[in-house]
Structure formats: C-alpha cells, structure tokens
Design a protein that fits this description.
This protein is an alpha+beta fold. It has two helices and four strands. A four-stranded antiparallel beta sheet has the order 1-2-3-4.
Length: 154
C-alpha cells in the first residue's frame, strides 16, 4: 500500500535540509557582524560614566577638604582616608585610575582619570583621558591628544 500525500505522490518530509540550515546560519552571522560593533560601542560609552562620576565625587571631596584645611588635597592625599585625605583609591568599577594635578593647591586642582591597566576601557581611543578642574571645567582627549570633551562628557 502506498502512503503518499498530495497529488504528486511525494512523501511528507520532516526537518531541514543542509542548504536551508546553511542559509539560516549565514543570516545569523551577518546580523551578528552588524550588531556586535554597535554593542561594543554602547558598552564602552556606558563605562565612561565610571570616570565622570568619580571625577565629580573627587571634586566635591576636594571642596570639603578645602573648607577644613584651606588648601586642596594633593595626589599623595587622594587615597588617604578623611580627614587627612580624600579616600579615593580609584573609580567604583575600577575601569579608571585617578590622580590630582596642580601647580598650587591653594588656588586650584585638576582631577584626571585614565584607563586602568587591564581595563576594557584601554580600547576606548575616543576618550583616553578625562579631566575636571576646581572651576568645574570638564575636559577629555582622544588617545592622539585631540579634544573630545563634548562626546566624552555626554
């Protein structure tokens, strides 16, 4: 007895052919190739907030330190716990290393954040260095040293 379906007499097939499977894999590969760079860029931009938030927190701590000591804290006092220092050892997620630069601590300071060793932010060529001054002047530079403040402090 012939158990066939339809007019043509072809048997009912189940599953996918190799060609169909390869087409689906190709489409998924193309979509992944398009989506992954955008995803990496989004993650890199989101991680920049680790630097900007830390710089704002250090600047606020510097102002408190100035009110108590009539001078801003030096780079050596950055990691020292309050009241002798600011108590910052790095950014919250450890993506950036903090430092304080100043020509005269009685007149001002500049807090600097650069990607920490081993950090995924080392790949961020667009925002390689963040700065914030006592006057709340924000700055950021690319790896090549060109200004990129508007993009990095978004």
């Amino acid at each position: 007895m012939n158990r066939s379906l339809g007019v043509s007499g072809a048997r009912r097939r189940r599953g996918f052919s190799l060609v169909e499977l390869l087409i689906v894999i190709g489409i998924v590969g193309i979509l992944a190739a398009i989506a992954y760079p955008g995803y990496r860029s989004f993650i890199r931009r989101a991680a920049r907030t680790d630097a900007t938030v830390a710089l704002l927190r250090v600047a606020a701590a510097q102002e408190r330190f100035y009110l108590q000591n009539n001078t801003y804290a030096s780079n050596a006092q950055l990691a020292t716990a309050a009241p002798g220092g600011l108590g910052f050892t790095g950014t919250e997620r450890r993506y950036y290393t903090l430092s304080i630069e100043s020509a005269g601590l009685t007149t001002g300071f500049t807090v600097v954040a650069v990607p920490a060793a081993g950090s995924p932010q080392l790949d961020d060529k667009d925002c390689a260095r963040f700065t914030l001054t006592e006057a709340q002047l924000k700055g950021a530079t690319k790896t090549a040293g060109t200004d990129n403040t508007v993009t990095c402090w978004r």
